[in-house]
Amino acid sequence: MTDRADAELSAAETPPSPPVTVEDFEEVARGRLPQMVFDYYAGGAGDEWTLQQNREAFARWSFRPRVLMGGGFADLRTTVLGQDIPFPIMLAPTAFQRMADRYGELPTARAARSLDALMVLSTISTVPLEDVAETGVHRWFQLYVMRERELSAGLVKRAHAAGYRAIVLTVDTPWLGRRLRDERNRFALPPGIGLANLQGVEMPKPDQPGSSLAAYFGADHDFALGWNDLPWLRSLSPLPLVLKGVVTAEDTRLAVEAGVDAVVVSNHGGRQLDGAPATLDALPEVVEAADGRIEVYLDGGVRRGSDVLKALALGARAVLIGRPYLWGLAANGEAGVRQVIELFRDELILAMGLCGCRSVSEISRALVSPAAGVRGTDRGA
Q: Among residues 369, 367, 97, 90, which one has the least CA distance to residue 242?
């Protein structure tokens, strides 16, 4: 046997390295998921400019680490809406998780529960909200308001009865953004997967071009929802109300005036309006407008524990991750989700330690500055 053949045989017998970054998990997921499913999870709207900017925004800030600050491991404990959580990283609502794992949202919930993390469940989950609640995970419920208002009212009441601790109203989807990957793939739910929380509501059949999800939103979603509807929504339960999808000072001030409890600076993972600002770029403006009167969270483009630290330094109380744990779910089920959460947690501990932060309460705006050669990152701060 030649040396080259020996080398090829040796390489073939060498097991692949275990994932050590979010991107590693993504590559494993890419190899395991059908193209339509991978593109649905990974893709954004339009030319995917906002999707790209969400990630690039973190490179527009650099740390100002302090040294000789003493202390041991960083204390990550914090609270959201008065609820204790062990670290400022929550699981964002993501739809259709049974496309990534046969058991869908259940292994995600169990992984989060094993680490005491908080999970936000999507309205269009593929497992009923009551079944997710039975895992014992700390949980909030994300809400889409349908044209049939009683459907949405019923969801809120069910979530309250099942022990969810907040309602997270997604406000950036009056219409669904144009997602070209989904159109090209003629996205549709695989057989046997449905809208588990919406009895009697089905996704359109894939018998015409385009995305069936877009057709569903166009037919059933309430595009006329407005600020004057929030009192109705709040009347349905005593749960705190969080608005997900705020990126401007104007809407933040309106949220405060409406008595909302928190906002998530979010552009739907770059999946709605292509050309919307990166969430980290929008964060300082929202934090300034909130002025401590409501809590501010962030999602979008978070791929490292150091990204979490930058968001906290710019005023977020916590961040939410979405695609990263989906890659973990597709790669290795419950264990994969847990590995991804642990990865973020441990990287955050390391980043805080290297910056001289002994606890979340010590993180401040003084920890970051615009990266060299970058202008305009501090708008609104």
A: 90
The half-sphere exposure of 152 on its side-chain side, counting CA atoms within 13 A, is: 22
Residues 39-97 pLDDT 10s: 999 999 999 999 999 999 999 999 999 888 876 778 999 999 999 999 999 999 999 99
Name the residue type at position 151.
L
Q: What are phi and psi of 238, to 5 degrees?
A: -85, 5
Q: Which of 138, 160, 221, 268 is catalytic?
A: 268
Cα–Cα distance for residue pair 96/59, rounded to 1 Å? 31
Write down the pTM of the prediction. Answer: 0.92
Find out whether 324 and 302 touch, Cβ atoms under 8 Å. yes
Structural domains for the chain: 35-363 (3.20.20.70)
pLDDT, tens digit (0-9, with 9 covering 90-100), for 121-175? 999 999 999 999 999 999 999 999 988 889 999 999 999 999 999 999 999 998 8
Angle formed by the axes of helices 323-355 and 22-32, to 10°? 170
Query: Strands, DSSP E only, in the chain?
Result: 61-63, 78-80, 83-85, 89-91, 118-121, 138-143, 167-170, 241-246, 262-265, 295-299, 318-321, 368-370
- To the query of whether residue 268 is one of the catalytic residues in this protein, the response is yes
Structural contact between residues 186 and 213, judged by C-beta atoms closer than 8 angstroms: no
326 closest CA partner among 6, 14, 39: 39
Tokens 């969801």, located at residue: 155
